[in-house]
Amino acid sequence: MVEFNIFRYDPDKGGEPYFQKYQFEPEKGMTILEGLIYINENLDPSVAYRASCREAVCGSCAMHINDMYRLACKTQSSVMGSEITLRPLSHLPILKDLVVDLNPFFDHFKEIKPFFIPKETPPQKEYIQTIAQRKKIEAWLDCILCGACYGSCPVAGKDENYLGPHALLKALRFVDDSRDGGAKERIAIVARDNGVFRCHTVFNCQKVCPKDLDPSGAIARLKMKTVFRKY
Ligand code: F3S
Predict the structure, then answer these.
(1) Which atom of ligand 1 is the closest one to the Cα of 203?
(2) Band of pLDDT at residue 231, cut at 50, 70 and 90
(3) Which residues share a beta bridge with 76?
(4) 127 close to ligand 1 (CB < 6 Angstrom)
(5) What is the C-alpha to C-alpha distance for residues 157 and 138, in angstroms, rounded to an integer?
(6) What is the pLDDT of residues 145-188, one digit of tens each?
(7) Where in the chain is the domain with CATH 3.10.20.30?
(8) Candidates 3.90.105.10, 3.10.20.30, 1.10.10.2840, 3.40.50.1370; correct CATH number of 2-100?
(9) Is 155 in the pocket of ligand 1 (CB under 6 A)?
(10) Cα separations (Å) of 4 from 23, 30, 100, 168?
């Protein structure tokens, strides 16, 4: 038997948050997300969680599982043991149970202008990127914006204005991209009070990233670019 101990809270109904236990026989190879689906379909349809792709691509099902922020679809129930505690992502308003309001998270993301800004003199036909130029950004491309890093970062918890590891990693993804012409603008954004220098180098973001990215390394690189900027 496995026991899921799930955080329950409905702000519309009021009252205090609490944990509710669900016991059931897990199927071999069951993920945490499949456990939640089983609970919804067989034990309690009122448990709220967010999920979509089921294969660690969309980033919807990030939550706190036992001791760490993880993707529910990528976490095997058997690895977590027979008692599994699920909590929502931290530092974001709770909409219901395991579902948080991601608007503040994406507002920070939008601040770094997550789109290509054309160069002053764009190529006539198309941008050609060499293998070496592509390699430079490869380490930052796989972020799925799941929010695990943001939930784990104590600075994000203390300062709602902090851009956060996700936005800063994405900023570097554009700054280092040979096709982008917005480096000056973006470096000025991350150099603000709520940017790279709010990071206290705690490394939680690196520890929890389900795609094995290193937001703390990206932030360190951005700090250097900010200090030594030539414009
Ligand atoms: Fe937070 Fe990561 Fe910096 S956890 S303090 S963004 S190194």
Answers:
(1) 7
(2) low
(3) 31
(4) no
(5) 29
(6) 999 999 999 999 999 999 999 999 999 999 999 999 999 999 99
(7) 2-100
(8) 3.10.20.30
(9) yes
(10) 6, 13, 19, 34
130: exposed, middle or buried (Cβ count in 10 Å: 0-12, 13-18, 19+): exposed
The CA distance from 211 to 205, in Å, is 11
Q: What is the CA radius of gyration of the chain?
A: 20
Could you tell me the sign of the dihedral formed by the alpha carbons of 71, 72, 75, 80, in that order?
Answer: positive
Q: Name the residue with tokens 């993707």.
A: 71
What is the CATH code of the structural domain delimited by 103-227? 1.10.1060.10
